[in-house]
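> call design_seq(struct)
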């Protein structure tokens, strides 16, 4: 009986009274440690006439009580006899505040993503430009339309161009997904990256005018009439840029493309946008001229179904057939020639990628230099060409930060050469023990190579796909170059104590190098996202679906006819 009477008393002692004024006035018995702010808001809303909880604002101690993060009333600072002010928002006001908060959170997330995107692109391009040790199983190179590697100015210029092309490709992905607002932000970043490059180096390529055209296209799709003046300026830059890179009336581009009209879709979009800007500026004569020219080019891109069927009957896919026909003016033989060229390029690229993958795997086996750089394979080939064993030469380059002269001095010094061989043997033996105990591992890595630019007239983004994964750690007993070194190594191996001491010293030295120059933290997810979006298709920039452009041309011509 006594325990039954004590139970309600204990419950009453645990509850505290708080006073609520405002939208609803009264006292509530609450358990401060058990009730949360959302629970209090819901109770006040119920007593205020069953309004939606989102319309109730709770204010205590001069601050608004928030639902996130969830906290008990005690954690929010409420005590017994606390006074809480409740206000009732207008029906739309509550939803507006919630929508505003959601928009602010989305904006913050978007800004954080943009920062990650820039940092990831910068880190990738830095590693693949300054000779840093590759954490990935792919390489980023600049190529022209024929697939030839491009040496582009200084290291800083090369890095800036790679960043710009990588960010531009990301923006194109957003445009294809109809995410034009997000694309504009990334296009602005790509434009900033281009601005870091020497203008004289990029004025002869069409990547920059393509960027200007994509920016104005986003303005148009978003119906942002307030940017008409800015759009006109950007289109002027695009027009002059295309003329510099493609030549007058695209004569130079036609020559490079064997007479093909691969750039026709670009000029449909350019002339459409020029006509739209002229229309909104009141220049109807210029608007009609541009739109009429755009319409004529648009009609040239309407491929007959019969021509597509002929190519498909030869074994080509519908998309590839349609693209080839658009770029060759429906000429069947020229289309077949183009498709054969593209197929040969793909085969050649696969072979090159396999060689590159093999070289990267070999490079990884040699390890990092003290400054986290990879062993320079060209300098290694030079040392091997004059008679030095490859693994020995690689280790000499590694410990000398790829200084070929210092590596050569080390290799030609008999005493230093012997010490170097002992060190390599020690590492090989250590790896052998680790492999025998099952410590070898493998990991999957993103595999795509990157961005390209045409250093002549018509640049494109190029990339190549390579198999995922990296080689497992291997143990090799390295061959010894001379008999004297072999005898020295045998003497060292006879003395287990000395051998273990040297191994420990080698381990400590390697660990000390890594601690002194730790590699920067990577945003692996964002880097892989950027790398995987590089298409490697030399004609991808010119393969534009102009269906929306065709509708817009008809719409604005109708507006001009109505005005007339």
């Amino acid at each position: 009986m006594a325990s039954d009477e004590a139970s309600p008393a204990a419950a009453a002692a645990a509850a505290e009274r708080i006073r609520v004024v405002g939208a609803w006035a009264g006292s509530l018995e609450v358990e401060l440690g058990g009730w949360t702010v959302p629970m209090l808001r819901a109770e006040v809303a119920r007593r205020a006439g069953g309004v939606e909880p989102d319309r109730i604002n709770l204010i205590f101690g001069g601050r608004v009580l928030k639902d996130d993060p969830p906290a008990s009333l005690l954690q929010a600072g409420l005590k017994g006899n606390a006074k809480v002010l409740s206000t009732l928002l207008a029906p739309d006001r509550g939803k507006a505040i919630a929508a505003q908060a959601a928009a602010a959170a989305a904006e913050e997330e978007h800004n954080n993503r943009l920062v990650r995107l820039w940092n990831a692109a910068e880190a990738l391009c830095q590693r693949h430009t300054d000779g840093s040790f590759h954490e990935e199983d792919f390489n980023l190179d600049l190529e022209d339309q024929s697939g030839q590697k491009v040496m582009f100015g200084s290291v800083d210029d090369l890095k800036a161009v790679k960043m710009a092309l990588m960010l531009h490709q990301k923006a194109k992905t957003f445009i294809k997904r109809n995410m034009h607002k997000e694309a504009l932000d990334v296009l602005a970043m790509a434009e900033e990256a281009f601005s870091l490059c020497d203008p004289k180096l990029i004025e002869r390529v069409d990547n920059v005018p393509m960027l200007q055209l994509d920016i104005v296209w986003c303005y148009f799709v978003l119906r942002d009439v307030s940017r008409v003046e800015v759009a006109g300026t950007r289109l002027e830059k695009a027009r002059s840029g295309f003329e510099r890179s493609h030549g007058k009336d695209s004569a130079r581009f036609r020559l490079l493309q064997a007479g093909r009209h691969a750039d026709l879709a670009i000029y449909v979009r350019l002339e459409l946008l020029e006509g739209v800007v002229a229309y909104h500026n009141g220049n109807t004569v210029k608007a009609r001229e541009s739109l009429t020219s755009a319409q004529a080019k648009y009609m040239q891109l309407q491929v007959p179904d019969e021509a597509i069927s002929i190519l498909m009957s030869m074994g080509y896919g519908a998309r590839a057939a349609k693209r080839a026909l658009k770029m060759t003016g429906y000429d069947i033989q020229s289309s077949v020639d183009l498709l054969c060229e593209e197929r040969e390029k793909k085969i050649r690229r696969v072979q090159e990628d396999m060689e590159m993958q093999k070289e990267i795997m070999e490079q990884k086996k040699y390890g990092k230099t003290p400054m986290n750089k990879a062993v320079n394979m060209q300098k290694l080939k030079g040392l091997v060409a004059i008679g030095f064993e490859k693994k020995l030469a690689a280790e000499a380059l590694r410990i000398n930060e790829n200084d070929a002269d210092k590596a050569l001095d080390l290799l030609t010094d008999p005493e230093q050469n012997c010490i170097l061989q002992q060190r390599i043997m020690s590492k090989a033996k250590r790896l052998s023990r680790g492999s025998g105990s099952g410590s070898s591992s493998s990991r999957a890595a993103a595999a795509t190579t990157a961005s390209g630019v045409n250093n002549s007239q018509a640049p494109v983004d190029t990339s190549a796909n390579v198999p995922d994964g990296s080689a497992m750690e291997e143990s090799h007993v390295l061959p010894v170059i001379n008999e004297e070194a072999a005898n020295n190594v045998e003497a060292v191996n006879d003395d287990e104590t000395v051998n273990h001491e040297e191994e420990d010293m080698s381990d400590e030295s390697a660990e000390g190098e890594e601690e002194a120059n730790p590699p920067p933290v990577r945003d692996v997810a964002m880097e892989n996202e950027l790398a995987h979006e590089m298409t490697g298709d030399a004609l991808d920039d010119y393969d534009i679906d102009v269906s929306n452009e065709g509708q817009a041309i008809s719409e604005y011509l109708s507006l001009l006819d109505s005005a007339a």
